[in-house]
Every structure is written in structure tokens, then in C-alpha cells.
Amino acid sequence: MTKARQDRLLNILVRDGEWATAATLADTLGVTPRSVRTYVTAVNARVRGGTAIESGPQGYRAGPDAAAAQRAGAGNDTGTPRDRLHRLVRLLLDDPDGIDVFQTADELHVSPATLEADLARVRSLLGGTELTLERSASTARLRGNEMAQRRLLSRLAHDEMDAGAFDLEALRRTLGDESVGARAFGPFKDDLVAELGSLGYFVNEFGIADVVMHIAIAADRVAQDRGLDAIAHESQESHEAVEAILGRLCEQHLGVCLGAGDQYHLATLVLTRVVAPGASAPSVRGRLDPEVEHAVREVVERAAAQFLVDIAHDDFILRLALHVQNLRARAKEQAWSRNPLTRSLKSTYPMIFDVAVYIASGLNTSLGIPLLDDEIAYIAMHVGGRLERSRRADQLLTATIVCPGYYELHELLRSSVDRSLGRSIEVVGVETRADPDWRSIDTDLVLTTIDPPAPSDRVVRVQPFLTESDVDRVQTAAGRVRRGRRLARLRADIERYFDPTAFVRGLDTGDGSEGVIRMLGERLVGLGAIDGEYVDRAIERERLSSTAFTDALAVPHAMGMTASRTAIAIGIADPSIPWGDGRVQVVAFVAFSEDDREAFQTVFEQFVEVFSERDSVQRIVRRSTDFAAFLDELVAVIDG
User: Which residues form the PRD domain (predicted)?
Assistant: First the structure.
């Protein structure tokens, strides 16, 4: 556990790239500040003479040798419980006749009692794998078919990799030092992507990384004469073409001759991770199962109405349906795709992720597809892509150019602004007087070549011939205006939705996250905002995917906007409490009514934005001794 917390500490600092105090990191990790200092010392010891984590008056931040420390940490697991468990599983997989417990304990330099404890951990690891661990006297053996054994190897490989990122060295640690060398897979992957492209496919790089992992596992097993048996199937030209590519490349790069069973299996994995988004609608529909298309269309239309998002378009539905069809094929094989963007999508675009959870839940009901956060994240990428393409022009900021007339100078400036900033602002007026009526200019921004009578956040001084520095300043000002506008709406909304009786400081985690949800839910029930059924549905939503959208904030809620009135219950935890796979310090139980449907996106996303800033979180948590103090601090943070 200590090693895992060291790794997590380093990963947090690398990801954020900012200074963080020991107290903040302690809250995130669920330890004491003294433990954080110990972890920093241990991480720095990984890079002799280097600095993986810098220390200073502001706390800690990732140093120049952080990446080297991450690699060193990944490669120095020999002897740890996880490394020993993985080695034990490899030994069991490699020997169908089983292993001798006492001999294996000697080889691993542990006592027989320790190995017995490791075997118990192996049993718990086998849940849902169609594998069993048999024991006869001193012999332990795994029982199960080859496909189930490969799925176990896949699980171990993913366990070795941080946040779903594909790492060939981690894969080799899983398969053993005698497995196919990592250097062969770079050229293999390049050639595979190129040949798939020549067949007209666009390759999902996240998906192809997972395919390469399965190919590595297959190559390793085939080299041990553990190939898959051929199965009867209908002949398909597209499938056979991919089979031929895989067979040729495996022999060329890996020196392994795949049998018919492995070629078919790997080609199926490739085809369920490859899409052709540029294909015309008729050709896409021709590849779709009508049942899948109907299910996707139905749930997308419901999501569009429920969340007021513009996604119910035929091209979006067809592309998503093709993805879901591939997902259903992967589900049958239990060959899931990892998504390294899951965490960032969840924290940066919580509303989009929530729409994806809603769609995934509907698909689970209609098609029986299991829900995993990584697969939900792929759906969120589809939703986000559609919303990005359908952004309305009225989201642009308006601007007035003030440029005293001299020949065509103001026309040249306007042309430069349109060319460089046309995607973020819209010029709606040009003032060519040297003494314009500044008070009458009511646009979001004013871009002026002369000094205004009084400074303002929305006024940006630019040169007559627009420079890159001018463009940067305008973009910064535009971002400031947008953020201020969003947070102003948030402030107006949340002051209406909070109630002093729905504020709790010092959360009791005895019953876990569900207990916290019920406790906060009871406060809203007492206010008449929701009923007990809403609380139950909020717990159901939590079970689908954790609502811990940042390292500090969880926002439990039901998917339906069925509250009698919109209300928010707040719980403060100091120190942090476990929630899902992480820890949080603030829990906001949000209940929305049908009447406030349009406010959902604003409140949800901007509330998460406020609590994604570490300094803001600490300020609010430390000073919120009661409801009045909480509201004061929250408003102060919003107002900047």
C-alpha cells in the first residue's frame, strides 16, 4: 500500500504540474502530512542524485526527474506482494500440471505460509474469469480454457499499467522476461495501422494499443504451444483480409506463426476497435444490426430531451451505433478497451460524462451491455464531439473595435481580428472616432488602439497591426469574461438552491458513500425537495459510475430530474473520505426539478469547475465551520 501511495503521490504532482501543500496531498491520499513527507523522501531516493519531487515554501511539485522516478518505480516491484502475485499466476498459467507449493515458496524466497496467503489472493482474483484454482496435497493448479487464461493475463497486464496507458515494458513484466521483446512491437504496430488504413479503416489509437497487448499475449501463448482452437464461422471478406494481415505481420515481426483460431480471434478484436467515421450513412447502416441502431436511437433521443443537448442527429446516432455494435462484440469476448482519458473527461466535462452514463445505462437495459467507466468515456467522446460540432454561434462573445480612422486602417484591423479570433469573438461594431462614447459601447469586449478613459477587464489595448501578443491578450480577456459570466450565473443559482438545514460538517463514513448519500438525502427529504425514491435512484446512479468528478468533490444525483424543487445538500469531510476509487472532501447531493432543467448544465459543470481548483477547495473546507461560513467562502471563491 505504501508503494502504491508513493506512486499515486508522484502521479498527482506530475498530472497537475503545480505546487501542492503537504496537507492538501494528505487529504487526497487519506494519510497524514508526515506520511507525505516520508513518501517524498522515498520517491526522491529512486533517482540517485536527481530530484523527482521538489520541496519549497509552497509545498511540493514534480521535479525534473519525475519521469525517471515513475519508470524506476514501475521497474522496481520485484519482491512486492503484487509482483509476487503476478509471478505466481504466471507460474500457474505456464504449467498445466500445476505447481508444488513448497518448491515455489523456495523459488520466490517466501515461507509456505506466505505463499498460501498468495494463493488465497489468486482465488479472489479469479472471480468472473471462468477459471478455478484446484488444490491437491502440495500441488496447486489452474483449471479453465485457454481464452479464460488469456483474459486473466490481460487483467494482470492492465493492473501493471497506470491509468490505462499502454506500456510494453509493463506487459513484458506480466508475461515474463522470456516473452516476445518489446522492441518488435513498435514496427509491428506501425505496419498494422498502415495496412488497416489501406483497407479504408480509421484506427482508434487507444483501441489499437489494447489490440497490440492482446497480440503480445497471443504470441507468447502460441510460442508455448498454447494456441486457440479453430472455430466454425461464416466467411467474411473483411474479416479474412484482417486475418491475413495479422498472420503475415506476426510471422514477420514476432517470428510466431498464428493458427486459424488465433487469427480469427485477433481479427475480431481488431474489427471491434476500428471504425470508419468518414463512411457514408448508407454504407454504415449496411454494417449495423437493426436492433443496435434502434436501441441507440431510442436512448439518444431520450438523453437529448432529458439533458437538453443537441445530439439527436442521424449521423451521430449511426456512428455511435457502430461503436456500440463493436462494444457488444467486445463484451461477449470480455475484451474491454481501456481509455487513458477517462479521468480527465470525467473531471473536465462532468455533464457530458453524465449524458454518457445515461446512454450507457439505457444500452445496458436494452442490449445487456455491462457498464465500465472506460467504455462510458468512449461514449462521452462521441457525445462531446457531436456537441463541439453543433455549438451555436450565439456562444461567441461580441466585440467592438475602436480604431480612429486613417485610410483603411480600421478595415485592416477588423480583417486581422476576424482571421485570428473569428472562432471565439464576433466583431459587431467599429468606432473610427478619436473620441467615441465609451459608455454606449455595450459589447462583451472592446478592442482599442487608443487608451480608454478608464481601465476595464473587458477593454483590451491592441496595435493597429494585430500582433501575436495582441491575439494572446484578447483570448485571455475572452476567457476571463466567459468564466465570469458562467460563475455569475452559478452564484445566482446556488444561493437559491442551498438551505442551512441541508449542510453537514463532519461526515460519518461508517456506511460508505451510500450511507453519506442517504444521510444528505434525508436532509432534502425533510425540506420536501425529494422523496425516498429519489435517494434510492441516486444510489443506483452512483453504482453505475462514481460521481467523484474531481480529487475533492463528489456530486451524487439521480439521472431523472424529478425533484419537487431544485435543492443541494452539502457535506464537508475533513480529513477526506473514501469515495469510489478515490477520496473526496466535499459531497454535494444535487436534486434538480423539471422546471430547472436548463440550469442543470450551468450548475453542474461550474460547481465542478470551482472544486477542481485545489487552493479553492482547501480554503472552503478549512473555513466552512458552518453554513454561513461555507456560503461566504464559496461566493468569495466564485467572485475571485
Answer: 287-393
Rounded Cα distance between 340 and 350, Å, is 16
What residue numbers bound the domain in which 416 lies?
A: 394-466
Query: Would you say how long the chain is, in residues?
Result: 640
One domain for residues 431 and 379? no
What DSSP designation does 432 have? -
Model confidence at 284, in pLDDT bands (50, 70, 90)? low
Q: Are residues 267 and 303 in the same domain?
A: no
Phi, psi (deg, nearest 5) at residue 277? -65, -15
Q: Give backbone dihedrals phi and psi of 445, rounded to 5 degrees, phi first.
A: -130, 155
Tell me how far apart the alpha carbons of residues 39 and 33 are, in angstroms, rounded to a whole number.
10
Question: Can you read off the three cell numbers belonging to residue 196?
Answer: 488497416
Helix axes 168-175, 146-160, angle to 10 degrees: 130
Query: C-alpha grid cell for residue 540?
Result: 443506483
- Residues 633, 550, single domain; the answer is yes
The beta-strand segments (E) located in 144-263 are: 202-203
| Of 349, 413, 344, 337, nearest in space to 378 by CA | 337
In terms of Cα–Cα distance, which of 398, 475, 494, 484 is closest to 441? Answer: 398
Amino acid residing at 113: A
The count of domains in the chain is 5
Q: Does the pLDDT of residue 405 top 70, yes or no? A: yes
Q: Tell me, yes or no, whether 187 and 207 share the same domain.
A: yes
| Residue pair 374/338 in contact by the 8 Å Cβ criterion | yes
Specify if 143 maps to a domain. Answer: no
Residue 514 near residue 542, CB atoms below 8 Å: yes
Residue 155, domain member (yes or no): no
Cell of 217: 499475449
Query: pLDDT per residue over 620-635, tens digit each?
Result: 888 888 888 888 888 7
Residues 556/515, Cβ–Cβ less than 8 Å: no
Q: What is the CATH number of the domain that holds 355?
A: 1.10.1790.10
Q: Is residue 350 part of a domain?
A: yes
What are the tens digits of pLDDT across the range 426-445? 899 999 888 889 989 999 99
Burial of 625 (0-12, 13-18, 19+ CB in 10 A): exposed
Taking the C-alpha atoms of residue 97 and residue 94, their distance in angstroms, rounded to an integer, is 9
DSSP class of residue 400?
A: E
Q: Are 299 and 228 contained in the same domain? A: no
Query: Does residue 513 sit in the same domain as residue 494?
Result: yes
**Final residue of a domain: which of 20, 54, 75?**
75
